[in-house]
């Protein structure tokens, strides 16, 4: 991944829904992407924990961008499926997600996301997810 493409991905990460819920890019390198989301009361469910949907969205979107780092500018990444294990309720002040490509193919990539609950500067893994991503040429996508 060249510096120009990396800069593009870092800026492209937060838009639309992901920007609305406060997700932001932290760092990227070949096959890896890290993101962060500051938690507000709007992210919490009825018991005060971070909603599973917010955790899942952070894991999925970050996993997709880890795949983007290897896909090339002519391609898009679409999630085909994922499985997430919630290891502990998140209740801190932010979440950090670190995603990595496990298997990079021309048409399919497998990625993993680890989501950490950050509370008072201490990190505790709150979720572990694995994703199957499709690599789709941009010219084949119809909006």
Automatic annotation (TrEMBL):
GO terms for molecular function: fatty acyl-CoA hydrolase activity. Keywords: Hydrolase. It holds the Pfam family 4HBT. It catalyses: a fatty acyl-CoA + H2O = a fatty acid + CoA + H(+); a long-chain fatty acyl-CoA + H2O = a long-chain fatty acid + CoA + H(+); a medium-chain fatty acyl-CoA + H2O = a medium-chain fatty acid + CoA + H(+). The keyword Hydrolase applies. Its EC number is 3.1.2.20. Residues 29-139 form the HotDog ACOT-type domain. InterPro entries: HOTDOG_ACOT (IPR033120), HotDog_dom_sf (IPR029069), PAAI_dom (IPR003736), Thioestr_dom (IPR006683). NCBIfam families: unchar_dom_1. Belongs to the YigI thioesterase family. This is Medium/long-chain acyl-CoA thioesterase YigI. It comes from Desulfatibacillum aliphaticivorans. The lineage of its organism: Bacteria, Pseudomonadati, Thermodesulfobacteriota, Desulfobacteria, Desulfobacterales.
């Amino acid at each position: 991944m060249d510096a120009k493409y990396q800069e593009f991905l870092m800026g492209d990460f937060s838009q639309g829904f992901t920007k609305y819920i406060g997700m932001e890019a932290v760092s990227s390198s070949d096959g890896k992407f890290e993101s962060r989301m500051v938690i507000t009361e709007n992210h919490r469910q009825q018991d005060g924990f971070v909603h599973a949907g917010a955790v899942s969205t952070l894991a999925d979107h970050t996993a997709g961008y880890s795949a983007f780092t290897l896909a090339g500018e002519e391609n898009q990444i679409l999630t085909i499926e994922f499985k997430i294990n919630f290891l502990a309720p998140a209740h801190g002040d932010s979440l950090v997600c670190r995603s990595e490509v496990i298997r990079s193919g021309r048409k399919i990539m497998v990625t993993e996301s680890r989501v950490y609950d950050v509370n008072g500067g201490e990190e505790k893994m709150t979720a572990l997810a694995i994703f199957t991503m499709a690599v789709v040429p941009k010219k084949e996508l119809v909006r």
